[in-house]
Amino acid sequence: MLKLKMITITALIVLSGPIFAQGESAVPFLLIGPNSRNSGMGETGTGLINDAAAMFWNPAGLAFQKGMQVSITHSPWLPGLGLSDLFYDYLSGKYYVKKLKGTLGVSITYLNIGEIIKTDEFGNEQGRYQAFDGALAVGYGTKVTKDIGVGIVTRFIYSRLAVDPVAGEQGTGTAYDLSFDISGLWRPSKTKLKFIDNKLGIGLNLSNIGPKVTYVDNAQADPLPTNLRLGFGYDIYQSEFNNLTLTLDFAKLLVKRREGGESDPVYKGIFTSFGGGFDNVMKSIQTSVGAEYWYGNPKLIGLRGGFFYEDPDRGKRKFITLGASIRYSMYGFDFSYIQTIEENHPLANTLRFTLSISLGGEETTTKKPEEKKPEEKKSEEQPQK
Fold this sequence. Notes:
mainly beta
């Protein structure tokens, strides 16, 4: 019975992943969009310079950030299932270190699965335990040029789906693993195409790279949800008090399952997951678009919307996202909501709430004018002959 419980738990978690991961990978909770701001934009953010949540969307975004920030997100997860003890929490922080010429980031992810009742083959209760998934990540982002940032994250993963040997197997149903992410972000400041200067962002993030996860034994190990994200962000309108940004993200799970359930190791799956022909590859890519509007200088009120699409043969998830924000001094509050296209979907009416505290590195809708060099000022002050 315990093994059946584990299968049920895993299925519930899998439903939460923003990418088609049904039966393909372990610990799919690592694919959950962690914060309200990006989730309100259709689960996009790879091409943006946003906040401490760049640890998830694109660690290279930390390279363009300064100051310090701490934020926490809470979400009653999969409300459509009616499970009151299933919830998701995400704590993240960033801090700019001048000596390191970059920004450090840290995040803690926690998915509470709830209390599980252990039973024997006759249905008799044998005890209870708390099941959950968690991850601790540390990252760093720095600029390699004025316009290009790179980022890296290392992550410790702990998954507790069971606490005793499963059906006579070796493992107990509890697993731990390590993974890392590598990413890049290009934010051009001066090009021949003036309409993209300080407006366009193109990001790439390869996340959850690491060895397979073992709950039972090595023969039944499952791959991590290695994920490739390509994202674009563009500030379509900027003025002193108004800013409108459009976003577009593409994501693909780099996991390859063979007949019989065997999966390729990560170094091989990154390439073999693109097999099966052009049509198969295109179906495996999820697409999301979003928009974000800010009023104020510095930013005061934000409104968001987005759309997420997944191929019907690869999960059939389609939903609309909405979000809003308010900033006051160092404090910020973000909210997001999911409206699914499909009726009775577990993700329907999913809410996320994010509270943040920022010190320095505040966001403004317009760039401050560059300070002139002393020699330039002196030449302007000298009278013309």
